[in-house]
Amino acid sequence: MSTSGGFSGALRSSGRVVADRVGLLFSAKGAGFQRLAESHAANVAGDTLVALALASTLFFSVPSTTARDRVALYLLLTLAPFAILGPVLGRIFDRYRGAYRGGLMVASGARVVLAIVMMFGIDSLWLYPVAFGLLVFSRIHGISRASMLPVVLDSPHELITANTQLAKIGVLASAVVIPPGVLAVRFVSPVLALVFAAVAFGVSALAASLLPSLEALPSSDRSTSRGAGVPRSVRLARLATAGVRFLNGYLLLLVAFAFRDAEAGVLDFGALLAAAGLGFFISAFVTPLIERRVPEEPMVVAALAVAAAAAFVASHGLTLPVAGVLAAAAGFAWGTAKFGFDGLLQMTVAPRARGRAFTISETMFQLAWVVGAIIPVAVTVDETLGLNAAGAVALVIQVVYVTALLVPIAVARRAAAEERAVEPDEPDLSELI
């Protein structure tokens, strides 16, 4: 009795500690951040459940050739939301101060409806337009969240820490729903996973409705600059981060089809997703430590190095454990690059210009991911050759990015040295006395 009571007491105590720490993730930066974090967590949970339902339908229930065709169509569909939303969202966010909060609410509410519609059309051609709608509103939610984050923080110096906290919350939310989602898909039906997703999106909409709007903030907290440009450092970091995203999509789909062709099941696919999420989660802890010592640009360089090393190592033998490590490394690289880039953009771009800047960036990242992912889908790529190619591409992007950063600095130093060299020496007045 006493042993059992002691064990149950220790279990309850551990549970309280975990609950307190998770609660601190949500509440540490104020009520506004807490509501944004709650909306984000529920949104990620819903997206994860939809991904599991779609994976079951598009990926595992059909022969390999058909799976490739369906995934290719789905990947092409993911580009359309950005082609439609890119020009529109930027203008809306620039013009209307309450658009960030409204975007979160509309995106989550619309996906409740679409998840319900998908339940009744998951085995029909209606699946594709509904999936398209889910992608559109998922992008609206992501861009609105990133643009809203600086609004709910007290200091711009908290941006990278806040980004990593949101990432931790998102990974935790995904980890919580993956087990019931996989069980629902495996033993009941993908429809049950969509029921869970609809509930999650509803919670996300409710949390978003409780966020402060930009109109509620003092005028001193808002920038009135509408035409502020994006600095060169941000543009370069955006291109390099897109390179990391390209590799992320390429490696994930290369590994996924390698195991799909080997008749692996949804549980193995879920394990790869979990490994990628774990890598992203670890990056959320490591990134703030790196950010204290180095600026954001070297974080992107480090992410490319991690992707290259993981690809080269995995090319020596792609077993399921090695694939899990590769997926984790890809998730870590993407998280490190994305956190660094988000912090750089949020810190250097005026608040009223962030919506458009984030729209352009997210469009580029999604395009890079799809281009990378569609290569192993459209063409059967040898695993060893494909992984070595990924490592080489990562190194090339790294060299180009570092060169682009350093050349202007070297040119400026040389110009300054030449200017000093041509300046006439000041006469020594002591010699004239």
Helix-strand layout with pairing:
Elements: H1 2-27, H2 31-60, H3 64-95, H4 99-121, H5 127-152, H6 159-188, H7 190-209, H8 232-261, H9 266-291, H10 296-314, H11 320-348, H12 351-378, H13 383-422
Helix pairs in contact: 2-5, 2-6, 2-7, 3-5, 3-12, 4-5, 4-7, 5-12, 6-7, 6-9, 6-11, 8-10, 8-11, 8-12, 8-13, 9-11, 10-11, 10-13
Please characterize this protein's 3D structure:
The protein has 433 residues and is mostly helical. The chain has 2 domains: 29-210, Up-down Bundle (Growth Hormone, Chain: A), CATH 1.20.1250; 230-419, MFS general substrate transporter like domains (Growth Hormone, Chain: A), CATH 1.20.1250. It is built from 13 helices and no strands. The protein has helices at 2-27, 31-60, 64-95, 99-121, 127-152, 159-188, 190-209, 232-261, 266-291, 296-314, 320-348, 351-378, 383-422. Helix 2 runs antiparallel to helix 5, helix 9 (266-291) packs across helix 11 (320-348) and helix 10 (296-314) runs antiparallel to helix 11. The N and C termini lie far apart (102 Å).
Poorly predicted runs = 216-227
Q: The biggest beta sheet, please?
A: none
How far is it from the N-terminal to the C-terminal residue, by CA? 102 Å
Radius of gyration: 24 Å
Number of domains: 2
Proportion of strand residues:
under 5%
Strands, total number: 0
**Structural class of the helix and strand makeup?**
mainly alpha
CATH superfamily of the largest domain: MFS general substrate transporter like domains
